[in-house]
């Protein structure tokens, strides 16, 4: 399998460390365009589409392989092995933050750091955990997706984006959601919202920056605080932002926090 074709991989920039950007549900690599100018002159940058998203090879989509996040993590590990050089920092939005954690667990020590934007290890509330949704909420969401994916996308994408005052961003996310093959999107939604990666993040020692919006329908602040407590080398940075995509709606604030976190790897020199 040709990885470049399978995942529509694009490599740009140069530097002593590699940033691998991994997008969230309903998105593709173009969503990183607001952040890229801040980093492509100082780092090697690897962009890719999850199989089933964007310009990836849809013929590579295997419903059995991608019936859990482990399938996507295996792909990410392959991409790192083939395209990354020097220390590797994973920049994962939403569900891709957990895909990055699973890839880290597959090859401990290969990933130097994580930057998690709007991450959540589990979306469903339990007696000792606040995920933001009840199990009934998630079942209702998935039932709506099954019955009317395009209608759900058109109504929910602007709400997920948030970003009051920037309606073009809501339109961009809506277009991205609606361009995703519905049957693939439905399965990925089920995998995403029913996953529980709390055991995977517990005790993870890889340095991690958690970027959490101050007002996020999908990943409330309590989730970022939970992750910060679970990962001993983590830093929690709240971005003053409404919505689940601060890398699009508040890129300057995100890049500022990322710059501070990334400074040790910017100074690394590879012989």
Outline the secondary-structure elements.
Blueprint (H helix, E strand, L loop, with lengths): L2 H5 L2 E3 L5 E5 L21 E4 L21 H15 L4 E6 L1 H12 L4 E7 L17 H13 L1 H13 L5 H13 L2 H13 L3 H4 L6 E8 L5 H10 L3 E9 L3 H4 L1 H16 L5
Helix pairs in contact: 2-3, 4-5, 4-7, 5-6
**What's the SSE pattern?**
HEEEHEHEHHHHHEHEHH
What is the distance, rounded to the nearest whole angstrom, between the alpha carbons of the first and last residues?
31 Å
Strand residues, percent: 15-25%
The count of strands amounts to 7
* Strand order in space, largest sheet: 1-3-2-4-5-6-7
Uncertain segments: none
Say what the CATH topology is. Answer: Rossmann fold
Query: Total helix count?
Result: 11
Number of domains: 1
Description:
The protein has 271 residues and is α/β, with parallel strands linked by helices. The chain has one domain (3-266): Alpha/Beta hydrolase fold, catalytic domain (Rossmann fold, 3-Layer(aba) Sandwich). The chain contains eleven helices and seven strands. It has helices at residues 3-7, 69-83, 95-106, 135-147, 149-161, 167-179, 182-194, 198-201, 221-230, 246-249, 251-266; strands at 10-12, 18-22, 44-47, 88-93, 111-117, 208-215, 234-242. It has a seven-stranded mixed β-sheet with strand order 1-3-2-4-5-6-7, with helices on both faces. Helix 9 (221-230) links the parallel strand 6 (208-215) and strand 7. The longest helix is centred in the last third of the chain and has 16 residues, at 251-266. The protein is globular.
């Amino acid at each position: 399998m040709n990885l470049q074709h399978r995942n529509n991989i694009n490599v740009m920039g140069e530097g002593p460390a590699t940033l691998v950007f991994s997008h969230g549900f309903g998105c593709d690599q173009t969503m990183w365009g607001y952040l890229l100018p801040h980093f492509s002159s100082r780092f090697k940058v690897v962009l890719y589409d999850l199989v089933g998203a964007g310009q990836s090879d849809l013929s590579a989509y295997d419903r059995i392989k991608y019936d859990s996040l482990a399938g996507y993590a295996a792909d990410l590990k392959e991409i790192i092995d083939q395209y990354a050089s020097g220390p590797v920092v994973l920049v994962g939005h939403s569900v891709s933050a957990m895909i990055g954690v699973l890839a880290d667990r597959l090859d401990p020590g290969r990933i130097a750091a994580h930057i998690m934007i709007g991450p959540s290890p589990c979306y469903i509330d339990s007696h000792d955990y606040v995920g933001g949704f009840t199990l009934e909420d998630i079942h209702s969401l998935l039932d709506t997706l099954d019955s009317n994916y395009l209608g759900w996308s058109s109504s929910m994408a602007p709400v997920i984006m948030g970003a009051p005052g920037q309606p073009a961003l809501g339109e961009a996310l809506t277009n991205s959601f609606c361009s995703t093959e519905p049957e693939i999107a439905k399965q990925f939604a089920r995998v995403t919202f029913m996953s529980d990666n709390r055991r995977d993040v517990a005790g993870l020692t890889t340095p991690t920056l958690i970027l959490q919006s101050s007002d996020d329908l999908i990943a409330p602040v309590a989730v970022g605080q939970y992750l910060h407590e679970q990962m001993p080398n983590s830093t929690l940075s709240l971005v003053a932002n409404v919505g689940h995509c601060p890398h699009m709606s508040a890129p300057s604030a995100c890049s500022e926090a990322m710059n501070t976190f990334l400074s040790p790897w910017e100074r690394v020199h590879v012989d």
